[in-house]
Amino acid sequence: MSMFGDNGDNEIVPLLSDEDVLDKRSEYTQKRHDGKRVIAWVTGVSGCGRREYVKLQQQLTRANGEHFEVLDGAYFMRKTVKDSGMSMNWDNILDVRMDTLQDIRRKAYREMADIIRDNGDVDFAVLSHGVFDWHNMVIPGYDPSTFEGDMKPDICINVMDNEEFVSQELNRRTQWKDQGMTPERAMRWLSEEFNETKNMADRVGVPWYVITRYMAPTTMYMLLYHPERPWVYYAQQMTHADDDAYDEADALFCKLVRMFAVTNPKGYEILGYGMNDSTCYFTDHRDTQGFVQQNDMTIAFHQNADGYNRRLRDFADRHGLEPEAAEELMALAGRGPAPSAGVMAELSDARGSGKDTYTIWPSDYFSPFIRSKSKRIFKTPDECMEFLVEEYGPPLGIQIPKHVMDDAFCPHGRKRILPPNAYSL
Prior knowledge:
Elements: H1 24-33, E1 39-43, H2 50-63, E2 68-72, H3 73-83, H4 98-118, E3 123-127, E4 131-134, E5 137-140, E6 155-160, H5 163-170, H6 183-204, E7 208-212, H7 219-225, E8 231-236, H8 247-256, E9 261-263, H9 277-292, E10 297-301, H10 306-318, H11 323-333, H12 341-352, E11 356-360, H13 368-372, E12 376-378, H14 381-392, H15 402-408
Parallel strand pairs: 1-3, 1-6, 2-3, 6-7, 8-9, 8-10, 10-11, 11-12
Antiparallel strand pairs: 4-5
Helix pairs in contact: 3-4, 5-6, 6-9, 9-12, 10-11
């Protein structure tokens, strides 16, 4: 008898029923649908703004009639050290012997587990680390045994920020200023934290998600309280676009965040030209293996060619091109948006992974590759939005406090211009 026979015939490889074939996401969504509480583990390298982001999401959640409690692993470890009578400078905690450090961590997390167990109807966000980069060594940031029982997460979330700003922030801190945390080291740590968070989720069989510190005003809230809504990667030109090219894209983004959990690459602040090989490889890995894979669909917004055309015009002026040559150059450029290698790679990866892919391409001219990688093409953001509402339902009535939206559009003090009606869309 073939071991791949009918249901009930197998002895070595028993076949699963349809009810048994539930992926991690389905189980998580069903748990929320059944009204059960959710525990989210939230990781992030030091200096990435993880605590600030979670606090803002807690305020957003409260404004919408829900609530989750935050348990900070570092706070409970400090408390454990104090309660035990140990005398140490907290800045040196990562220099402590590994067995002592893990013992402190186990006791701290046991106290958090007691709180979670004693509050069975409360949602919790547990702030932790995957790994630490300390003296160029990789040090574990958690004890896997804490995943057992009451501390087991239902979803693992990794908060990220750009390596340049993580480096700047850590070099301002007393604990880290002698570590020589260059942007390259910060990027390596971000990559290790990203991978360890995914491994963490895979180890316990739960979904995982990477959130950018900025441009994610509702993402964690949507993950925790509306997991039934699709998770979306909002692909856009980064390297070759300027702020003027983002007006329409930002306006659509402010609508999308009221419908879906959205990953926006602008929140990571890719800094255009001058990237070294490590940055390029990390960017590709983060976007295709993280941003694209964690989401159900990719919406690709190819910005209008205005910014690109302006650069061409400036180029023609600087190089003294003849009017006829400049006119021919502009006519060729005006046929469509400036293509983006990154957006096309992300579309291709999403399509090849069985994701839904939608493209906003504001031109009648497009490559066959854009068509083949897109389930549907829309000429305008409004046309795309009309389809999404019909397909997935209208935006939710999410109340986004002004300071939460302001923070999302104001990374590192560089104020972005909010699109009109951003608060009331």
